[in-house]
Structure formats: C-alpha cells, structure tokens
Amino acid sequence: MNALRRLATLLYGADPGLRRMLHYWAATCILYVICIGLLMLQVEQGLSDPDAAHGLVAFGACGAFAFYVLIRANAVFKLASDQLAVSQAAFSLICAVWAYTISGPLRAAMLTMAVVVIVFCMFALRPRQTLMLSAAAIVGMGVTMWWLQAHDPVRFPPATEFLTFGYLAGALVSTALLSGEMSKLRARTKRQKAELSDALETIKVLATVDELTSLINRRHMNQVLETEERRHAPGAEACIALIDIDFFKQVNDRYGHATGDAVLRCFSAAARASLRANDVLARWGGEEFLLMLPDAPVEDARAVLERMAERVAAMVVPGLDDGQRISFSAGLARRRSGESFADAINRADKALYQAKEAGRDRIVLAEAEVP
Ligand SMILES: Nc1nc2c(ncn2[C@@H]2O[C@H](COP(=O)(O)OP(=O)(O)OP(=O)(O)O)[C@@H](O)[C@H]2O)c(=O)[nH]1
Q: Name one GO molecular function term (predicted).
C-alpha cells in the first residue's frame, strides 16, 4: 500500500494542482489507449492502412509523453493551466482529424472523439476558449474534408463528406455551448464555495472573539477550560484569576460610555501584554475578565497579575483626565487536583469579592491558597 502511494507521489507529485492536471492527463491517456486498440482492430480487419495507423499511434504516444513531461515540469515552464489544457485539447483534435483521414469506412466514428475532447474542456477552460477551440476544430475538419473529397472523390464522396461535416459542426457547436454553460456553473459553484468558507471563518471569529476587546469571549473560554480540564496531567498546576476593573461605573458616568469602551480596550491590550505564552485571557462579562494560567504555580500567577497591575496603572486612555488611574481587583485560585475549573472559578470569585471588600486595587488568593 505504502509502495503504491510512493509510486503515485513519484508519478503525480505532491502538489494538489499538479495532481489534478495529471489526473486529466491520465484520463486522456485512457481514451488514447482505447482509440489505439480500436485502430489496431481496424488494421486487422483491413479497414485501415497499417503504416498510417502506426504513424498515428507513434504520434499520439509521443504527444502524451511530451505532455506528461510538460505538466510534471511545469514549475520550470510556468505555463498557465488553461494554456496546457488548450494545447492538450488541440493535440487531441489533430489526432482525431488524422484518425479520420486513415479510417476508411469507419471514419465518421472517429469524429465522436472530437466531441469528447470539447466535453473535456469544460473542466479546464473558460467558455470562450472552448468555443474558439470548437471553431478551430470545425475549420480544421472542414479544410481536411474538402481536401479529401477534392483529391480522392471515390473514397471520400463529396456528398457524404459534406453531410458528415454538417453533423460534426452541429455536434461541436452545441457541445461547446453546453460545456460553456457547465463551466459557468462550475465557476459559480467554486465562487459560492469560497464565499461560504469566508462566511464560515467570519462566523467562527464572531462566535469566539469579543468584538470590543478582541479577547476571546466567555463561550470560547469555556471550551478552552474544558479542553484544559481533559488535558490536565496529574500534578500539573493551573491557576485561575477573576479580574474586575475598579469603579468602572464611575468612569462611564463621568466620561461617557465611549470612554468606558476605550478603557476596556486599553485594559485588554495592557493585560494581554503581561501574559506568558500559554496564558489565556477572556472577557468574562462587562468589566470582568477571566485569566487561565496553565502549568503555573500560584507564585508565578501572582507575578503575572502584579505585572499586569503595573501596566494597567501606567496605561494612557484617550478621553480620560491626566492622572486618572485605572486599577483592578483580582481573585486568584489554584486549581486543586481533580477539581473542576467551575469550582476553581467559584473560589476565585469569592477571593475577588474579598479584594473589593478590602478596598480594591489588590490581588487576593482564594482561601485554600493562603499560606
Ligand atoms: N462602557 C461600557 N460599560 C460597560 C460595558 N459592560 C458593562 N459596563 C458597565 O460597567 C459598569 C459596572 O459597574 P459595577 O458592576 O457597579 O462595577 P464598578 O463600578 O466597577 O464597581 P466595582 O466593581 O465594585 O469596583 C456598569 O455601569 C455597566 O454598565 C461595556 O461594554 N462598555
């Protein structure tokens, strides 16, 4: 299985775009092989000239190999994928015209291949390119048929050639139009898929991030805590801190709601700048924040909060009077072994209440942590 996968990577490469192009190439090759098989049967039945048939087989095989090299080494040639597709389709049409000239009474059947080539185009070409290619096929086939009936009217009766050309032109034009519609449909589906995935990304952000502070919101923090609870290795310490800005109502009342919002934004930025790499800070509600410090002994957690208090005290908030200092109170709890985060948050909440009661602008350890 592994060897097969390695062989596929060797042949197809690892790049998804390259793989897609080579898959189309492989599908074309299967078609070539079927056509070669049928051509050989024609030769066996005496319906086609063997030399001419072998010439066409050699031409088809060389072309298929050349296209493989061209696609595989496209990192060097840097051809656009539609340029490659147009050249491949043009090559296949030349093969179909050639097959027509050497196929004796079965020649009309060869024209179905030209139609198949145009159908293939819907996967790789724009509608206009497909139409141009069909027009080129009609002109190429028309000139060939005219030349054949003019030079060998016994094998290529003019009336038969004329009618065959009419059928072919009709089939090619309608197939080109239909495959053009299909490519438009594919392009629309692709665009809608991209729009949907953008919208999904926006929804994800809206569902997890607080719009005002750009911190994660309470819902997402609960998910983070759940994950951390499951990951929590026995003995590893995690701390929880509930942080509440002091006298925030007074800020709102004195400076207005917009300045209150600015305080929340500046506080969040200052608080975030004080964290260690793995600490997670969330807006828990209003002017309250929850900080989770994984793998942190309580002394380290306290140090983070003190650093945060210094930064918050030093921050300059647009709209606030000079000298108006912002502070916060925090309740800090170490999550006990086997304890749920919900219980640890409850203990942190009680400690926060004590911090407020004791005069604010301080960090209070939850009861069990007080030495
Ligand atoms: N500007 C603004 N204010 C908010 C927001 N969310 C909550 N608030 C206000 O925050 C204030 C919280 O007031 P309180 O709960 O009394 O707390 P406090 O004034 O900070 O007092 P202590 O916490 O006891 O220090 C209320 O006036 C809310 O309206 C918000 O997103 N923006």
A: diguanylate cyclase activity
Tell me the one-letter amino acid at 73.
A
Q: Determine whether 287 is an active site residue.
A: yes
pTM: 0.62
In sequence order, the 6+-apart residues with CB closer than 8 A to the CB of 210 are 216, 217, 282, 283
Q: How far away, in angstroms, is 282 Cα from ligand 1 center? A: 16
CA of 286 relative to ligand 1 center, distance in Å: 6
HSE (side-chain half, CA atoms, 13 Å) at 370: 10
**Interface TM-score (ipTM) > 0.90:** yes
Report which of 179, 174, 172, 183 is spatially closest to residue 119, judged by C-alpha positions.
179
Ligand 1 mutation pick, 252, 267, 320, max ligand atoms within 8 A of CB: 252
Pick the residue whose CA is nearest to atom 4 on ligand 1: 286
Per-residue confidence band for 231, with pLDDT thresholds at 50, 70 and 90: confident
Q: Write out the CATH class of domain 218-369.
A: alpha beta
Contact between 179 and 130 under an 8 Å Cβ cutoff? The reply is yes
* From-to residues of CATH 3.30.70.270 in the chain: 218-369
24 C-beta closer than 6 A to ligand 1: no
| Nearest atom (ligand 1) to Cα of 244 | 23
